Amino acid sequence: MTQLATGGDTPTQIRPASACPANRVGSVDKHVGQRIRDRRVMLGLSQQQMAEMIGVTYQQAHKYARGINRISAGRLFEIGRALSVPIAFFYEGLDGAEDETSSHRHRMCLELARNFASISNEKHQEAISQLARTLADQQ
Questions:
Q1: In Å, what is the CA distance from 78 to each residue of 28, 30, 56, 59, 66?
Q2: Mean pLDDT of all residues in 104-125
Q3: Helices H, strands E: what count in the chain?
Q4: How confident is the model at residue 88 (pLDDT cuts 50, 70, 90)?
Q5: Is residue 98 over pLDDT 60?
Q6: Range of the domain at 49
């Protein structure tokens, strides 16, 4: 099967549909979904809260975050607005392949930052910060 590429009113090129491998597109969708999840977690939002903010069901928000359903340009704009980030945020790091271990570590860092920010007692924050410095120095 071929796709017709147009440039204005007339076709400019015919290329095979396989020129854009489906697995590459799927990996972009998954990356964007991961970035949505990361930002949502960093802000301390549940999937339900985010779904309400962008006007979709919980199930649809879940499918976006897993890369199962593609996100339209307009919807990605709304998600960016809800999460207070520019659209480019969702594509950052797309060039570099991030393995599963670094992805898990990244998520832990996001959760740690979110939890640290929710501590209202400054003395407790300083104690945790000092603990982190001490543990980092012991390696």
A1: 18, 18, 11, 17, 18
A2: 86
A3: 6, 2
A4: very high
A5: no
A6: 26-97
